[in-house]
Amino acid sequence: METYDLPELFQLVASYDRSFESLAYPKTEQQQGKADLTAESWAAALGDIPADFAKSVVVEHYRRNSTSVSTSVIHREWVEYRNQQIQKAESAEIRAKRRPSAEESLRGWERATAALLEARGQDPDEAIGDIRARRAVLQVKCPVCKAPPGRGCVVNTGRRIQPLSNNNSHPSRFEAAGIEQQRPTLPPRSREYREEIPLAEQPPVAE
Asked: What is the DSSP letter of 164?
């Protein structure tokens, strides 16, 4: 505020508070001198506060209080207002910052996984495909153990409920998600292996 803004502010205050009448409408040289000094001191105290804001504080102050308004009252309201504006601006800036979508985050994770596997001399395609399938399966409820979406399958051992080994999901959950389960290749049993060997080459059976 500037000094020339204060007479109008004093007049507004005087409409609520008669103690400001001599400052708003000085009738004598002494009252005029006091009004000028008061205007200068108020302008110094409220220098960074817009005149319209000070007027709004005056109106709100007398709506709720019977005590005279002061520069400290106006300044306190201004500081609170500025803090609120800063917080709003910071919140808006945070909201405006673009966050990666779930798909973009997954692609970034896949790139990191691929780089790690390639550094180890492994083909990352199969591992990433398996990870995608596992993520998709977890989007549906398991028909067997009733694990909700987002939670891994569990098994009841009789003593406690624990996760399936290797973070696997029940086959029915793969079916519910419409995904073909990749089954690991297991070594053949010794009996089956012997059946595939020609009879002449089978080792003698001890009697």
From this structure: P
Q: What is the pLDDT of residues 130-145, one digit of tens each?
A: 777 778 888 899 998 8
Domain count within the chain: 2
Spatial separation of the C-alpha atoms in residues 128 and 185, rounded to whole Å: 18
Range of the domain at 168: 102-182
On whether both 37 and 55 belong to a single domain, the answer is: yes
Q: What is the DSSP secondary-structure string of 73-86?
A: HHHHHHHHHHHHHH
Q: Are residues 73 and 122 in the same domain?
A: no
Q: Grade residue 153 by pLDDT with cuts at 50, 70 and 90.
A: confident
User: 43 and 90: one domain?
Assistant: yes
Residue with tokens 């009879």: 199
Q: Which of 41, 73, 96 is the last residue of a domain?
A: 96
Residue 186's pLDDT band, with cuts at 50, 70 and 90, is: very low
**C-beta of residue 136 within 8 angstroms of C-beta of residue 179:** yes
Q: Which residue has the tokens 């790690």?
A: 116
